[in-house]
Write a structure and sequence with these properties.
alpha+beta; Cytochrome p450; five-stranded mixed β-sheet
Length: 292
C-alpha cells in the first residue's frame, strides 16, 4: 500500500475508525465538522487495525465514487453490507430468511403491553443482523419522534407518505456506516489526488446527513422523500447497489404498517445500548414496551 505524506491531521479524524467512538451512537458532530473543511481526509487505520484509507464524507463525492466502479472497485464484504449486484459473492443468508411477505404483526406481538422487552434480543432476534439493525433503527426513529408516529397513524392511507417515511428511516439511521473501495487508477475526489491501489472508505452515514442535500438532517422528516429530488445512499447506488435493498424496504414498510395498526404506542423502556462498531449501525440492546 502506498504511503502518503502531506495530509495534515485533523482532530476528529483519528476517532472515525475506532469502534469505541460509536459506543454512544454515531458522532454526527465530527462528521459535520469534517465535511465542512476536509470532506476527503486520510485515516491512518491504526486505531481500527485496518489499512489506511481516504475517508470520503460528502454526499456528492460518495455518490461520484459509487457510480464509477471502473475507478473505485468494490471490496466484497458480505458480512458488512450483504451481496451487491454484479458480484460473485453468494448470498449467505438461508433462503428461509429472505421473506418478502414478512410476518410483522407476529413479530410485534412479542412486545406485550406494559412489559419491557429487548427488541434486538427478543423481538427481531431471528432476522439476519443487517436487517435486524435496519428494523431497530427504523423503530428507534419513531421512538425518538412520537409526534411523527402519531401523524403517520392519522395519515396511513397516504401511501406516498408511508413510502417516504420508510426512506427517511433508512436515511436517518443508515444501518451500514461505510463501505470500502480500491482506487483503480489515479484520480481526484473532492480536490484530493488519489493514487492507484489506495483504499477509500465511503461514509454512507455522513453522506446521508449532508445538510447541503438534506436540510436539517438530524431531524426525522416523514415526508422528506415526497418532495426531495435526491435519493439517500443507504444501499449504495447504481448497478453495484446492495441486493438487500428491496428486502430491507419490504420488512421496514411491513413493520411500520403493523405499528400504525396496533392500538397504543411503543415507548423506550430503558437506555438503548448501541453497537460498538465503526461499520455496523445497530443496537446491542433496545428495550421497549407498549403503552395502551
Amino acid at each position: 500500500m502506498p504511503q502518503r505524506r502531506g495530509a495534515s491531521p485533523v482532530s476528529d479524524t483519528g476517532a472515525l475508525g475506532r469502534a469505541d467512538t460509536y459506543a454512544r451512537g454515531v458522532p454526527h458532530d465530527r462528521f459535520d465538522r469534517l465535511r465542512s473543511r476536509t470532506p476527503v481526509v486520510w485515516l491512518d487505520g491504526r486505531g481500527a487495525e485496518r489499512p489506511g484509507a481516504w475517508a470520503v464524507l460528502r454526499y456528492s463525492d460518495v455518490h461520484h465514487a459509487l457510480t464509477r466502479p471502473e475507478l473505485f472497485a468494490p471490496q466484497p464484504d458480505v458480512t458488512l453490507h450483504g451481496p451487491v449486484s454484479g458480484a460473485e459473492t453468494p448470498l449467505e443468508a438461508p433462503a428461509a430468511l429472505i421473506d418478502m411477505d414478512p410476518p410483522a404483526r407476529a413479530m410485534l406481538a412479542r412486545i406485550p403491553s406494559g412489559e419491557a422487552v429487548d427488541f434486538v434480543g427478543e423481538v427481531a432476534h431471528d432476522l439476519p443482523e443487517t436487517l435486524r439493525n435496519t428494523l431497530a433503527g427504523g423503530l428507534y426513529a419513531l421512538l425518538r419522534h412520537p409526534a411523527d408516529l402519531i401523524r403517520l397513524r392519522d395519515e396511513q392511507a397516504d401511501e406516498k407518505l408511508v413510502d417516504s417515511a420508510v426512506e427517511e428511516m433508512l436515511r436517518w439511521w443508515t444501518p451500514v456506516l461505510q463501505v470500502w473501495r480500491t482506487v483503480q487508477r489515479a484520480t481526484t475526489v473532492g480536490g484530493v489526488p488519489l493514487l492507484a491501489g489506495e483504499h477509500v472508505t465511503l461514509w454512507l452515514v455522513s453522506a446521508n446527513h449532508d445538510d447541503e442535500i438534506f436540510p436539517d438532517p438530524a431531524r426525522f422528516v416523514p415526508d422528506r422523500f415526497v418532495r426531495s429530488p435526491r435519493p439517500h445512499l443507504c444501499f449504495g447506488f447504481g448497478y453495484r447497489a446492495c441486493l438487500g435493498a428491496q428486502l430491507a424496504r419490504v420488512h421496514l414498510r411491513a413493520m411500520l404498517l403493523a405499528l400504525l395498526e396496533r392500538p397504543g404506542l411503543p415507548r423506550l423502556a430503558g437506555e438503548p445500548v448501541p453497537l460498538r462498531s465503526s461499520t455496523r449501525h445497530g443496537f446491542t440492546h433496545l428495550p421497549v414496551h407498549w403503552t395502551p
